Amino acid sequence: MTEKGINNQPKNQVNIPSFKIEQSQKADFTANSGMFLIAELIKKLDIIEKLAQLNIFHRKKIGEAVHILTLVINQHTGGDAILDTQYVKKDGALRTIFGNMHIPAPHTSGDFLERFTEESVERLRTILHKMQDKQLKRLSKRLCRKIILSLDSTVYEVYANCKENSSTSFKHIFGYHPLLLHIHNTGELLDIIFRTGSAFTSTGAEEMLRYNIQRLKPFFDEIILLADAGYRLESLKASLKRRNKKLKTRGELEVAKFEHTVPAWSTQYRFVYKRKQIIVDDLSNQSELFEETEEYFYHGYVTNELCVSIVFLSSI
């Protein structure tokens, strides 16, 4: 049909072309094509060789790296249980991305996990941290040697009372209560500590921070911590005092709102601002020559009351 003919057609007319669907024998397809990025990261960091150092599963045919990567791939492709590794095994294109690696049977992966002890978990944590440390120097340049850490915990529910160290949490959920430390600038997980469900919010937080601050000190001149009031870090405060440092915390929340029409927008919007005063606790013995001005953390919204259109952060 010519272009002229198409233009002359009534607007309510629909012409659906004919399609031919056939199966190609040349290559497999996968809904998880983004996994090639993880494969590239694994190759770049030389993770396969490093995971072989665990030496916890003495089976010559299947190494630790294969077991761990199978579980990682299973989780990133939507698997909820070890049994879901069967779908990874059936995905030919996904297996091609990882060099046609062998996918262990679910019961074999279960046997591998049963051999993990607190000692082997700590060894795995050390291996992962060594790989992270090599990237921190590059990250410090990107962040201008200033890093923000976010400390928080989460409750992970389990559905069987035979799980080791599982217990009822403060949310009345039966399971675990791990402690998580993220790099707030990028969202990456820096460290994690496994805890029983009944663990208090700040249990293990000081030890985790002390360890990770030592890791970060060679690469960052300023380390900022974001944490809830439940984390009372008295020993960290004492450590700052010994080094004549200042501790900055945020005060009470203040909120203000007003309506304004920006000429370029020609529409009236609602502006909502909240701020918290930054309270400086000078732990040093040095006296200041000049009185410090008040410092606030601002968080602003511009909204039409139906959805937020702009979000920005500033500190004055």
Features:
Transposase Inhibitor Protein From Tn5, Chain A, domain 1; alpha+beta; four-stranded antiparallel beta sheet; 10 helices; disordered C terminus; 11 strands; 32% helix; 25% strand; 316 residues
Describe what you observe in this structure.
The protein has ten helices and eleven strands. It has 316 residues and is of the alpha+beta class. It folds into three domains: 35-116, no CATH class; 118-243, Transposase Inhibitor Protein From Tn5, Chain A, domain 1; 244-316, no CATH class. Strands 6-5-1-7 form a four-stranded mixed sheet. A four-stranded antiparallel sheet has the order 8-9-10-11. The protein has a three-stranded antiparallel sheet with strand order 2-4-3, with no helix packed on it.
Number of helices: 10
Shape: globular
CATH topology of the largest domain: Transposase Inhibitor Protein From Tn5, Chain A, domain 1
What is the percentage of strand-forming residues? 15-25%
Order of helices and strands: HHHHHHHHEEEEEEHEHEEEE
Q: Average pLDDT across residues?
A: 78
Helix-strand category: alpha+beta
Report Rg. Answer: 27 Å
Q: CATH-wise, what's the superfamily of the largest domain?
A: Transposase Inhibitor Protein From Tn5, Chain A, domain 1
* Total number of beta strands: 11
Q: Strands, helices and their partners?
A:
Blueprint lengths: L2 H5 L27 H10 L2 H5 L12 H13 L8 H6 L1 H6 L8 H9 L3 H25 L3 E8 L2 E2 L9 E2 L5 E3 L2 E5 L4 E6 L11 H12 L5 E5 L7 H9 L3 E16 L6 E15 L13 E8 L4 E8 L1
Parallel strand pairs: 1-7
Antiparallel strand pairs: 1-5, 2-4, 3-4, 5-6, 8-9, 9-10, 10-11
